[in-house]
Design a protein that fits this description.
The structure holds 2 protein chains of 2 kinds. By secondary structure, chain A is an all-alpha fold. Chain A is built from 3 helices and no strands. Chain A has one domain. In chain A, 82% of the residues lie in helices and 0% in strands. In chain A, helix 1 runs antiparallel to helix 2. Chain A is elongated. By secondary structure, chain B is an all-alpha fold. Helix content of chain B is 69%, strand content 0%. In chain B, helix 3 runs antiparallel to helix 6. The longest helix of chain B has 40 residues. Classes of the chains: A mainly alpha, B mainly alpha.
Chain lengths: 76, 295
Amino acid sequence: MTEALIVIVIIAILTALGFGLIGLVKGGKVGSDRMFKSLATRVSLSVILFLFVMFAGYMGWIEPNNVMMDASVVQK
Amino acid sequence: MSKEQAYYVPDGTYWPIIGSIGVATLFVGFANQMHGVEWGGSVMALGFAITVFMMFGWFGQVVNESTSGIYNSQVDLSFRWGMSWFIFSEVMFFAAFFGALFYARQLSVPWLGGADNNLYTPELWNGFSATWQQVAFSTPGTTLQSGVAISVPTQLVDTWGLPALNTLLLLLSGVTLTFAHHALRAGHRNQIVGWLVATIALGSAFLGFQVMEYGHAYADGLKMTSGIYGSTFYMLTGFHGFHVTVGVIMLTVILYRVQKGHFTADNHFGFEGVAWYWHFVDVVWLGLFIFVYWL
């Protein structure tokens, strides 16, 4: 559930970035406005997502990938 | 910007041929360096120097043409399309690497462990465990048939430490860049300079900590030779770090151009292109942080 929520927010961030790109290609006043608003949205969403991931990790809702485990543990 | 409707066609230029010579020299040097040829390194350095010289010369010429006011709206649009194709290639570049991560994690490693194909493969590798967290490991001292020794990590990497701090730094740089963007659109040049300097400082701090993180990981035995985990980890974070480096250089150029008064509140494509690139690099890191360290 938590993981699905995180992925949904990532998709929203990518969408905002995509709208920013459309504004960049369009240019002019309209494009510039759209680009700025989209990028501001993507920054806000990213900060919120980061804080949420840290909070979810702290609460134990998601577990970090501890990839570098002690080799002796693995061999047991 | 020029009001001229005829399409602007620049004079003939020698920069493309200099660029070709630079890049060719770079790769001839690189290929020979890989084969241990004595002069490989110096030829590579020469090729790199020629390429940098070409970039300074060519981009400088374009900037001069732009500030002299000979470009019209058609040229502006062609720059925007050029940027969008560059971005498309960047998106595909990182999509391929994230694709490699997902393929290894979700498909090929479970298959090696016997998932889906009903093939039990415990003897494939002595001590092999088909879970993503453990694929970096094998029996210490194992040597592949090719003769390459496998490096075995011995320490935990702390997700809460440097990776989280670096994510925070890069996200903050996105925030400061947004403030710089806002200041530019509102025409406050001093504020743009301040926020841009902050963005460059945060980006540089990220790179410094990334070097530290590599130092820790390497000292603890996580190397390119640490199986599929080690190679995808260094491929993704390494290319991302390279992109941050390029982004910091581009932001520094933009800072210089802001101080030179090249941009106005409603005509600043150079800034917009670099800003979007930085946001993109920021999002790639957020994806890396979440998918490599968390999910």
